[in-house]
């Protein structure tokens, strides 16, 4: 090996070591100052956590797979770690949180994050994972409508069906359809809310007389989403 070449190689390796050390120090600094952003970086590099989306798989379908359009929101990693001011949207068809970052689109599954908050302005909407939904499991995102002794959650999802607005005689096309199911959770047990009065006993048990009284006193229609939210809030007071 020539002396000059060997010297150049030595300095090149030394430079690479210094660069790696600087990178490690920078990552540690970010992690100490903002654990959520450091965790976001790790998830981005983890194919199973924040997997990249390279194309639109829904181009041939009408409507949108998203519950809402992309907007500024927060990603919840844990009770203490939150990444704020992220551009996110909930894909209600795939049940994933999608994030726009550095010109890329990433998808996060429920097992990788605790939840997220959409529309962090005047009316934030909080979604969480971990609630065990009958026949579905806990690996889903649900919206928290009321939190308390009785917790009211909404399972938003989308299905694909025939486009009912397609012109008569035209080739059949598929369109996204919105579905929402409400569940009442108490002591970790989630039950789908059934609006017929005879099924209230299944959901509220010994509190059914109180529920019936609240419905009567406040003229509530439990077929209406807003009245169900009010009912559960009154029940928790």
Q: What does this protein look like?
A:
This protein has 2 domains: 34-192, no CATH class; 194-237, no CATH class. Residues 5-31 and 42-48 have low confidence and may be disordered. An 11-stranded antiparallel β-sheet has the order 1-5-4-3-2-6-7-8-9-10-11. The protein starts with a helix and ends with a helix. 29% of the residues lie in helices and 30% in strands. The chain has helices at 3-33, 35-45, 200-204, 208-217, 225-236, and strands at 50-52, 71-76, 82-91, 96-101, 104-108, 115-118, 125-128, 142-146, 151-162, 174-186, 189-192. It has 5 helices and 11 strands. It has 237 residues and is an alpha+beta fold.
Give the number of helices: 5
> What is the ordering of alpha helices and beta strands?
HHEEEEEEEEEEEHHH
How many discrete structural domains? Answer: 2
- Quickly give the structural class: alpha+beta
Shape: globular
Distance linking N and C termini: 82 Å
Low-confidence stretches: 5-31, 42-48
Multimerization status: single chain
> What integer is the average pLDDT?
81
Classify the helix fraction into a percent range. Answer: 25-40%
The main sheet orders its strands as: 1-5-4-3-2-6-7-8-9-10-11
Strand content: 25-35%
Largest sheet: 11 strands, antiparallel
